[in-house]
Write a structure and sequence with these properties.
With 93 residues, this protein is of the alpha+beta class. It has two helices and four strands, in the order E-E-H-E-H-E. The chain has a four-stranded mixed sheet. Strand 1 and strand 2 form a beta hairpin. The chain is globular, with a radius of gyration of 12 Å.
Length: 93
């Protein structure tokens, strides 16, 4: 699993936190859309996926807390910058 990062994803619509192992070579936009689709299938009564979904750093993510991630950036680039590490808390917004 060296080419993936484990993210803790908060779904504000439900208040639930899920873990996703995200490949380095996808963009933030692609990762967010895929996570939204999975969560919409798990929480169909409370959450509906859209193409306008973003990822935001949250819950103790340090200096970057509350910052939306650039949808065009790759996960690999964010890991390389130290913004994403295993266990980084993000919110699907």
């Amino acid at each position: 699993m060296r080419d993936k990062v484990l993210l803790e994803v908060l779904l504000p619509a439900t208040g639930s936190v899920y873990e996703f192992r995200v490949p380095f070579d996808v963009t933030v936009e692609t990762a967010a859309r895929l996570m939204a689709q999975v969560l919409a299938s798990r929480e169909p009564a409370r959450y509906e996926a859209t193409d306008e979904v973003d990822l935001m750093l949250c819950c103790g993510a340090g200096a970057h807390e509350g910052e939306e991630l650039n949808p065009n950036e790759t996960i690999r680039a964010l890991v390389g910058q130290g913004i994403l590490v295993d266990g980084t808390p993000v919110a699907l917004v």
